[in-house]
Amino acid sequence: MRIYKVGGAVRDRLLGKPVTDIDWVVVGATTEEMLAKGFRPVGADFPVFLHPNSGEEYALARTERKSGRGYGGFTFHASPEVTLEEDLIRRDLTINAMAEDDQQNLTDPYHGQRDLEARLLRHVSPAFAEDPLRVLRVARFAARYAALGFTVAPETLELMRQLSESGELEALTPERSWKEISRALMENQPQVFIEVLRACGALKVLMPEVDALFGVPQPPAHHPEIDTGVHTLSVLQQAALHKQPLTVRWACLLHDLGKGLTPEQEWPQHIAHEFKGLKLIKAVNERFKAPRDCQELAMLVGEYHTHGHRALELKPSTLLELLQSFDVYRRPQRFEEFIAACEMDARGREGLEQRSYPQADYLRGAATAARTIAVQPLLEKGFKGPELGEAIKRERLKALKAYKENA
Ligand code: CTP
User: Fold this and answer.
1) Which of 27, 154, 215, 270 is deepest in the core (most CB within 10 A)?
2) Contact 12, 19 (CB under 8 A)
3) Are the C-beta atoms of 240 and 246 separated by less than 8 Å?
4) C-alpha torsion angle, residues 297, 301, 303, 306 (rounded to 10)
5) Which residue of 12, 91, 93, 122 sits with most ligand 1 atoms within 8 Å of its CB, as the best mutation to test the pocket?
6) Does the Cβ of 8 fall within 6 Å of ligand 1?
């Protein structure tokens, strides 16, 4: 039995990046031998085991063949005869298809090291096409390593295009797709993920609502970059630069979907795009079964981002409605995330990246003003039920009027 480190751990060590989890491949062993050594099987007929102490994954060297459509359509062949080279050739990218023994001797039959130096994301073999999730993986790696100068090799992009056109992406489960999307959005250059998906035609399949934003103009006075797709990518980039959480990044990506629905004769205006976009945001949310906090924030930011920008002009009653919509009294964090998404939207415009955004503090102040209303004195005055609700609202409105006058 020979054991090698494989995949991301080898890649990241060679790149000088921190290695978080290590995957191992075991050549020349049987399931029985692994079990006898105390390894715990991961699944019934999947040749992967967990180390009894470290919990790291050890996979028997295997070949994989696609026997049908979708993720279920695989047959695995793991046996002591499968060589390291045979195991590596079925992997996605050359930079992920290197192995290392315990002396750090590299096995690199598909020239991963050469591609690391050339900063190229290149598929290992036609077996790439056996898992369509790899289209998303490559786009994610492109986002992660963009700062190092990595690009997708033209022949790999072509293969990704064929896969996107083949209908295979539709067979991906929402869970697998979301895992890639959410990880990609948390990279430093998440906009590259979307760009690569767009370049290979996968964006049109996965998120046609986002794809449709490219080529849609906006008024140059507010949007010097003009193109809505370009704007969306800049907003996402700002969200990453400002280290925003996933909820905010997801909301940034989807905030302007309504602009893709505007009839051409109305361009570059987008009247009521906030409201019109809601059904599209809902559809994308549900397609990927995004977590509830991501779904909620995306819907709220979609509906109210223009309110955020116009905060200083809003009537106290509108301000109150905004705060109520966010349930800012019980969910202060969500309102903070809304403010952050609005600020990213304001900065994700050509030449305006450094602008100040006084709306943020103004909105925070309004939330504080409304939150200071105490319920107890109203209870003591005898208000209850719906009347109590109305009384609280009146007091909050009063507080917001005073706040606006003094701001
Ligand atoms: N792999 C693959 N195709 C996939 C998933 C994984 O070929 N769809 C292979 C690659 O060789 C990869 C290894 O399995 O390097 C481990 O996969 P994973 O842990 O998902 O990714 P890493 O490459 O380790 O990358 P990350 O740093 O993103 O975890």
Assistant:
1) 270
2) yes
3) no
4) 170
5) 91
6) yes
What DSSP letter does each residue of 140-152 carry, written as one string? HHHHHHGGGT-EE
Which residue is it, tokens 């109150």? 320
Angstrom CA distances, 301 to 50, 223, 255, 256, stand at 42, 18, 6, 9
CB contact burial 3-34 (16+ within 10 A = b; e otherwise)? ebbbbbbbbebbeeeeeeebbbbbbbbeeeeb
**pLDDT of 185-236, one tens digit each?**
999 999 999 999 999 999 999 999 999 999 999 899 999 999 999 999 999 9
Q: Is the CB of 96 under 6 A from ligand 1?
A: yes
* CB of 112 shorter than 6 A to ligand 1: no
Q: What DSSP state is assigned to residue 347?
A: H
Amino acid, single-letter form, for residue 176: R
Ligand 1 mean position, distance from CA 7 (Å): 6
- pLDDT by residue (tens digit) across 106-157? 999 999 999 999 999 999 999 999 999 999 999 999 999 999 999 999 999 9
Domain 1-110 sits in CATH at: 3.30.460.10
What are the pLDDT digits (tens) for 237-288?
999 999 999 999 999 999 999 999 999 999 999 999 999 999 999 999 999 9
Q: Whole-model pTM?
A: 0.94
Tokens linked to 80: 């002591």
Nearest CA to ligand 1 atom 8: 134
**What's the N-to-C CA distance of the chain in angstroms?**
73
Structure tokens at 382: 């005898």
**Parallel, antiparallel or unpaired: strands 120-121 and 57-60:** unpaired
Nearest alpha carbon, ligand 1 atom 16: 7
